[in-house]
Design a protein that fits this description.
- With 284 residues, the protein is an alpha/beta fold.
- The chain has 2 domains: 169 residues, Formyl transferase, N-terminal domain (Rossmann fold, 3-Layer(aba) Sandwich); 88 residues, Roll (Methionyl-tRNA Fmet Formyltransferase, Chain A, domain 2), CATH 3.10.25.10.
- Helix content is 27%, strand content 27%.
- The chain contains 8 helices and 12 strands.
- The strands form 2 sheets. The chain has a 7-stranded mixed β-sheet with strand order 3-2-1-4-5-6-7.
- The longest helix has 25 residues.
- It is elongated.
Amino acid sequence: MKHSKNIVFLGSRFHVLEQLLDRVSLDCITIYALEQTVLTKILDQKGIAHHTFTMKDKDIVLKKLIKSNFDILISNGCPIIFPVHKFKKEQILINVHPTYLPYLQGKTPLNGVFYDDYNFYGATAHYIDDGIDTGAIIFQKKETLTPDIDLGLLYHLAMKLEGIVFKEAWKILLAKNFTYVGRKQSGNSTYFNRTEGMQKLDFTNCNTNQILKCIKSFGIGSQGSFATFDNVNYKIFTAEKIVHQPLLDTYCKEPSGKIVLNYDDKFLVKTNDGLIKITRYTKS
């Protein structure tokens, strides 16, 4: 049954909104979509009315929301930090976050799944409080991470899981007539925000496994890891560890950070304890 609450949805992703549209009449939903995101593309394709905003518009949108009379606000991939104390006491503010909180709070948490060596991923629907991703949990779910999952697949899986988590959270809210207070986050919280410094490969101080972990942590086309070889700048997306002993023996005396072999749009780079094969990259 569709509910008649007056709802505001803000964000950049679609899976949560898709679940919401199955449960609430579109007439009751005001959508704010971050410009040039997957969400705006899908909404345009489906002909769903929405407002777009940019990062520069954040303060304008926030002022408008504080003055509005919505019942529930749902944030999903939204760059706005909401000052909860400025909203009406009866208004409900919810965020859907692509990790299993309290682990990996922050703006770009999925990079941290690989960078900080987690063996699981997850998603959480929680109330928004005055902290960042610290509010009481309505519902969350986690899955075991397997070695075949790269960053692109992780984004896909986590965003899809956000929709599943929101669906279950909405059931709880309906069953409790929107009076459920949630449960406090438990465990030692961690925080992750991607920086360019993290994306720079250090062949002097890092070993093979550390370099490969860095590359995997940022291994999608819009990010990448950075290195310079022979005065040429590279953006690297995927790489593999070389374990073939004759190759390791051949180049064992070469300096770390040197390209030792080019072949078939790939190349081998010496590390301080081995070799890596760069398989996907761009250069400038």
